[in-house]
Write a structure and sequence with these properties.
Layout lengths: L3 H18 L5 H4 L4 E6 L14 H7 L8 E3 L5 E3 L2 E6 L5 E6 L13 H12 L8 H5 L1 E7 L2 E6 L6 H4 L26 E7 L3 E6 L13 E6 L3 H10 L4 E2 L16 E6 L4 E6 L9 H10 L2 H9 L3 E3 L22 H10 L6 E7 L3 H15 L3 E7 L2 H9 L7 E6 L20 H11 L4 H17 L4 E6 L1 E6 L2 E2 L16 E2 L1
Parallel strand pairs: 1-10, 15-16, 15-17
Antiparallel strand pairs: 2-3, 4-5, 5-7, 6-7, 8-9, 9-10, 11-19, 12-19, 13-17, 13-18, 14-18, 20-21
């Protein structure tokens, strides 16, 4: 039950939200059984998920506007989507896809093997900004006929069918691909109606979809709400029906509310303090390990995620194949932190900038991190930036940051540590050679063993400060079915939703 103070705060916040969002509390009832309003924390920077790394693009577009050869399901399994099925060669390097027939893009152009070839070669091109470009550069695409395409991989990659169900592998229509960021054209069950920057985005069901009756939701509105109090208020006011990845701070008031379902699910995400190895003295492993020794993971989980997290010690999470527990490699020990800083020749105070994107876990976590590091003589300047700024200047561009708190949500992205050009700037020949062995491992057991070695190496080198595996909180208005509890990838599968 809500305390009197919490009830008053929720009521006040809900009233404020009605004014800010311009909708009465009764709007939910007037939407009927064919519409839904989904709240998301981050506004997509565009509508082409192959053009930028932001997961917020996929949250809106994947399986709704665009489709892929395979589909990743809520339990992490992979099933056909645009493909009827596929076969893997005995050498584990060739995938042959049989494509579904009679599918068209929103602009009436046919979906066929040529579109697959174009999409994957576009993703692999030197001009591509696809975050999985390296994966596509390893592929040679051969068209056998209009409905058969062969992918020849230079490397053994057992995760390729999973990756081909993610947003970076969408199949695009060649003549419209260059304008997908603002005028998306796909094969999905929905089309873009309106994108009001800074406010909302509306998708409507596409009558030309191959199975139009499959989409019970005919109109979906995405509202962009980053503030935790406003997220809760929008749900309580009836302005939002569904909020995947609700800020954990806002969750408890829904636990016993009969109007809502509260779902707590697992993830493959890793929340970390990213470290820029290109900047001194952060290129010194003793300094990085000193920062690690200064932090208390459990305190950060409480402060940043309101307790919804599991501690991790490397860039890998419990439940993933080959996981090993490395949390003991860098334990919390303030005396060790001070000693390592002294050994590295650091005279305190050491001043560092912590760049924080607008998501609540980063802003909340930044305050806790600064307080912890201050105890060992590290002074943090917290720099709040918008999401587009983070993508341009921290993740991309000149990598203008010292530290940054961020969740990496891709399920299989351990290989980013083998990329010297990645935004961390970690350049380890040892890790690169080890990752090459992982990719070519002949058996699952061998691969899992090598994955364990990789996790230990990343922990030993303190590549980042690995904090926790988030537990995602989803709140849905009671009566909305088909909501995903577990999120192996970030997607809001609208065609799977329906009101009872």
């Amino acid at each position: 039950m809500l305390s009197r103070r919490a009830l008053l705060a929720s009521t006040s916040a809900a009233s404020t939200a009605c004014l800010l969002l311009g909708a009465p509390a009764t709007w939910a009832q007037s939407r009927g059984k064919t519409a839904v309003v989904v709240g998301i924390a981050l506004e997509p920077t565009g509508l082409d998920p192959t053009a930028a790394a932001a997961s917020s693009i996929a949250e809106v577009t994947l399986y709704n506007l665009y489709e892929t050869l395979t589909r990743v399901n809520t339990d992490g399994s992979v099933t056909p989507l645009l493909a009827e099925g596929w076969e893997l060669s005995p050498d584990l390097k060739t995938l042959t896809f049989r494509l579904k027939r009679g599918i068209t893009f929103h602009n009436g152009k046919p979906f066929d093997a040529a579109a697959v070839k174009f999409s994957f070669e576009r993703a692999a091109s030197d001009k591509s900004t696809n975050k999985d470009r390296r994966t596509f550069q390893n592929l040679t695409v051969r068209v056998v006929d209009d409905h058969t395409v062969v992918l020849l991989n230079r490397e053994i990659d057992p995760d390729l069918p999973f990756l081909l169900g993610q947003a970076t592998a969408i199949i695009v229509e060649p003549t419209s691909a260059d304008t997908n960021a603002t005028q998306p054209v796909g094969t999905g069950p929905y089309k873009l109606e309106r994108f009001a920057r800074g406010s909302s985005l509306v998708l409507t069901a596409w009558d030309g979809y191959r199975a139009p009756a499959a989409a019970r939701i005919r109109r979906a509105t995405f509202r962009f709400i980053s503030d935790p109090a406003a997220q809760a208020a929008a749900l309580l006011a009836g302005d939002v029906d569904l909020f995947p990845r609700l800020a954990p701070r806002a969750a408890e008031q829904f636990r016993h509310n009969p109007r809502f379902d509260l779902l707590v699910g697992g993830s493959r995400a890793k929340t970390i303090v990213a470290i820029n190895h290109r900047r001194k003295p952060l290129d010194d492993v003793r300094v990085r390990r000193a920062l690690y020794a200064a932090i208390d993971r459990q305190e950060l989980i409480t402060g940043a995620a309101d307790g919804y997290g599991v501690p991790i010690g490397s860039f890998y999470v419990p439940g993933a194949p080959g996981y090993v527990d490395t949390t003991a490699v860098n334990p919390h020990a303030s005396d060790t932190a001070r000693r390592l800083l002294a050994e590295a020749g650091i005279k305190t105070p050491l001043e560092l900038t912590v760049t924080l994107p607008p998501v609540p876990y980063a802003r909340q976590g930044g305050e806790v991190l600064a307080a912890q590091l201050a105890k060992v003589g590290v002074v943090c300047r917290l720099q709040n930036v918008e999401w587009a700024q983070w993508l341009a200047n921290t993740y991309g561009g000149a990598h203008a940051y010292d530290l940054s708190i961020i969740s990496h949500v891709e399920p299989f992205d351990l290989g980013n540590a083998a990329r010297p050009d990645y935004y961390w700037g970690y350049d380890s020949k040892e890790f690169q050679a080890l990752y090459d062995r992982i990719k070519t491992a002949p058996t699952t057991a061998t691969r899992n063993g090598l994955l364990g070695d990789a996790q230990r190496l990343l922990a030993r080198d303190a590549v980042s400060l690995y904090l926790y595996q988030p537990q995602w909180v989803t709140v849905a208005r009671r009566g909305l079915g088909g909501v995903w509890k577990d999120l192996p990838i970030f997607v809001n599968h609208l065609a799977g939703l329906g009101w009872t």
